[in-house]
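Postdoc handover notes: sequence design on the structure in folder B. Input tokens:
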């Protein structure tokens, strides 16, 4: 006798209903969604960092434009352009002027008496640039050139009598004696020099040794100014003349300190090309990250739709 069982009463294994497979697929989908959300947050974080870097880069560039850095360079020369030395001796008289080399000055012969003047000199009268009333007398002497041979100029002045408590001779330095010689308006040239350069003094009864150095400064408009720096040493003169004297002797030496011309200029360290390259890199990274985020969102939506579709299929199968 055959036994017939009702098909509706047969209990199928769980594996045959497919309940395990949809659960496993749901877990994988959930992990993928969580991973996509993490990547999206990472994109937002990277975008915030990139915006901060853009702001910081622009701020640094503007700050460097406002505050240029001073640059100092040195150029070595063997011969300087002979400077001009303008003396304002007043009542004093030039007794001797000689060029010597290698820091050697021979002993004085008949100090206080006229000697040899072997320097190139010019005398000039001009109106005081500050008062425009007082006439000034200047003795302009060509300075040393050969710094390798330690060329120096040694001058001796004599002041017979003075009604002042202290005696000194004023002088100023300008960059080129040849420019003074070639100038068609020497009076105006000396006025400009006196207005632009500082003046110094050397006292009577001493030997003043002046060591010069040249500093050139480049301005923002491209012009160039010249300034002299000096180091002076003073040695007392021992007057060995037999008869007591009421006059004053002045001794001064001019020499270049070193063969280096110092050039000073302000430079802007901000490089616009570096900033542009950095900004391009940042924006490129932002666009790539935006594309990635867009694809991630599309992928999440696609996975969600697929999951919902499979869920409906499982429910239909169970039903």
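Designed sequence:
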């Amino acid at each position: 006798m055959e036994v017939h069982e009702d098909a509706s009463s047969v209990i199928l294994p769980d594996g045959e209903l497919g309940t395990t497979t949809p659960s496993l697929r749901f877990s994988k989908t959930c992990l993928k969604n969580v991973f996509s959300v993490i990547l999206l947050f990472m994109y937002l974080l990277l975008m915030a960092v990139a915006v901060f870097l853009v702001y910081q880069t622009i701020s640094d560039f503007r700050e460097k434009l406002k505050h240029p850095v001073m640059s100092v360079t040195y150029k070595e020369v063997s011969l300087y352009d002979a400077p001009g030395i303008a003396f304002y001796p007043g009542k004093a008289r030039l007794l001797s002027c000689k060029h010597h080399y290698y820091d050697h000055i021979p002993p004085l012969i008949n100090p206080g008496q006229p000697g040899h003047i072997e320097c190139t000199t010019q005398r000039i009268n001009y109106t005081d640039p500050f008062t425009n009333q007082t006439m000034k007398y200047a003795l302009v002497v060509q300075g040393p050139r050969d710094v390798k041979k330690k060329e120096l100029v040694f001058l001796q002045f004599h002041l017979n009598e003075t009604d002042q408590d202290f005696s000194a001779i004023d002088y100023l330095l300008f960059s080129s004696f040849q420019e003074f010689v070639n100038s068609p308006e020497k009076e105006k040239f000396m006025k400009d020099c006196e207005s632009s350069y500082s003046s110094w003094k050397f006292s009577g009864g001493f030997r003043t040794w002046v060591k010069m150095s040249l500093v050139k400064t480049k301005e923002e408009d491209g012009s160039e100014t010249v300034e002299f720096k000096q180091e002076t040493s003073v040695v007392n003169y021992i007057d060995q003349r037999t008869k007591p004297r009421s006059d004053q002797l002045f001794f001064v030496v001019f020499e270049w300190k070193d063969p280096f011309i110092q050039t000073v200029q302000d430079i802007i360290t901000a490089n616009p090309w570096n900033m542009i390259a950095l900004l391009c890199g940042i924006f490129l990274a932002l666009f790539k990250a935006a594309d990635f985020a867009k694809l991630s969102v599309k992928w999440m939506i696609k996975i969600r739709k697929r999951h919902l579709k499979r869920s409906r299929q499982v429910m239909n199968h169970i039903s």
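Context for whoever picks this up: The first strand starts at residue 69 and ends at 76. Don't rerun without checking with the PI first.
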